[in-house]
Amino acid sequence: MRVEGLQIDFPPLTENPFSTSPLESGQESLYVGRLDIRGRISKHINFRSNRRLLIVGEMGSGRTSLLRCSASETPVYVHIDHISATNPAHSLLENLYSQLIDYNIPQSRAELAHKIVEASYTYTSKIPLIVIDMPTVETSVMTVALRDALPLLERLKAVVVVVVEPKQRSILPDSIIHSFASIETLEPLTIDEVKVLIERRVSSATSSNFQLSTIDAEYIHSLSGGKPSEVIRFMRDSIDVSLHSGTSTEVSPNAPFNSLIETEKYERTQPIFPEYTNEETILETNQELEITHDSEIIDASLPWQERDSVEEILTSSDPVSEIFGFDLDLEGLSDSISEDEPIDTFTYSATPDNEEIIIADSNPQPSIDAGTFHGLLGRTRGYKKSNDEVEKMVMDEESSGAELWVSEELITPPEEDLDISEEDSAALIHDEIGLPEIDIEEFDSLTEFEEPMMDEKEVEMSTFETINSV
User: Fold this and answer.
1) More confident residue, 127 or 207
2) Residue 442: which domain range?
3) pTM assigned to the model
């Protein structure tokens, strides 16, 4: 198996040795790099030097594999990867107690802390390794747990290692940072370490010798940036493509890590057709045509006595009907036109010779049963208004609030011409002047008490003078 783009010749492999899962205890031979950090942790365990270490590394930097491989140096390995967010410190102590002692956890926190400290001093040759690595826990929850459990962690006779990411390291308070004896930062792998990592993984799945060239190691290092998880993922995908395809796979220098997977998916989605020569294809086509012509076309809707033979069906076929899907008989069409009956003339033509005017009032209006509103309906129908008349609207000044515009006829009714005779005109003037009507009898009764009685001539003279003075 060969990866031509990288010039890598893989020997026969029993499995794909590149897995992104963290290494377990007992796989120390596959771990590469960070020898100085592993050496210091091993030294603290063997010389019973209780320490609190802070390891800073990104996800995929190999921090979990580093600590799991160091578990072989210690009598007891405790790995806490999750705690409860409701009571972080107590949850941390409960996990520590269950892995270090047993699952009969005391209810009292004081008793819980006392038994944990007492159990850490029972190991005489080497001290335990306690790892707090919680990648899925929020930084605020982890900060509260470390702050509350810090007094207990300082009393333990063990090597306590807390693993955080660089962004979590910047959030931790100084009181927690200063409690650690040292801070270890995981650096990327070098080119030589990448070369050794690939060689060890391949050698674990084969009995043959395998050597990786420095050029390929430099290329893989440039793609992965020295991050162990990226190196392993790239090699895993390369081997998977080579194994599934059964042929050599060329890796483009500019291709991303997932290009090999995409190539494999594309090959799987392509339809698989058998390879035929031109002669075989022509022969099969002729056989299909013969089968089609030899087969009978049967109309199942007709009885078998009335069915036409295949020859009659083939001879009756017309190129026009084959193209358009129907039979075109021009002679039959002309005969049918001559046999058609003449078209009836309608009362109103769609294209009249003269301009016909339809008067709406010429037809009587339909009768409507309006019930009690027959009078209103009659007045409505009888009302006709000339188009020349324009109703004049004026504003009603007497209305309050919003402006009200009404017809001028409602405000000032039209003046009526009155025919008055000459005799009635004097009476009209008399009414307009407003002269009081003098009742002679009442006047006589009033003057009887004040003045002596006057004769009729004097009364007439006085009345005449009064009228003339006006």
Assistant:
1) 127
2) 423-469
3) 0.52
